[in-house]
Amino acid sequence: MTPCRRGTFDLIAAKERELSAERDYAQAWRDYWIAAQIWKGNRRRLEGIVDAQPSASLSAKATEPIATHEHKH
Predict the structure, then answer these.
(1) CA–centroid distance for 14 within its chain
(2) How much is the pLDDT for 64?
(3) How far apart are CA 30 and CA 43, in angstroms?
(4) Distance between CA 25 and CA 22 in Å, rounded?
(5) By three-state DSSP, how is residue 71 classified?
(6) pLDDT at 43
(7) Quick one: DSSP state of residue 68?
(8) Residue 65 DSSP one-character state
(9) What is the pLDDT of residue 42?
(10) What pLDDT is stored for residue 5 in this prediction?
(11) Per-residue H/E/C for 11-35
(12) How far apart are CA 30 and CA 36, in angstroms?
């Protein structure tokens, strides 16, 4: 191979590696933002469940009559 052809091949291979690295970088950022949005949505949903659950269970218990236990022999 002549030096010119070898230089051109090296340049094209380097450009392919550069574009591949840029694509991988963009995909990593996309994956990060998708995961962040999923996490944020799940956190909000879980906070809603946790915030609502104790008050709902406490209010339900507060309105329940106290059970009495009788022994008959």
Answers:
(1) 34
(2) 58
(3) 20
(4) 5
(5) coil
(6) 82
(7) -
(8) P
(9) 85
(10) 73
(11) HHHHHHHHHHHHHHHHHHHHHHHHH
(12) 10
Structure tokens at 49: 């469940």
Pick the closest to residue 19 from 11, 31, 8, 30 (CA basis): 11
- Global pTM value: 0.50
Tokens (6 digits) for 72: 């008959």
Q: Which residue has the tokens 């591949």?
A: 20
Residues of the chain with pLDDT under 70: 1-4, 50-73
Per-residue model confidence (pLDDT) at position 34 = 94
Identity of residue 2? T
Distance CA 32, CA 40 (A): 12
CA distance 31 to 41: 15
Tell the residue number behind the tokens 């946790």, with chain if given. 50
End-to-end CA distance of the chain: 107
Question: Which tokens belong to 62?
Answer: 């507060």
Rounded-to-integer distance, Cα 40 and Cα 29, Å: 16
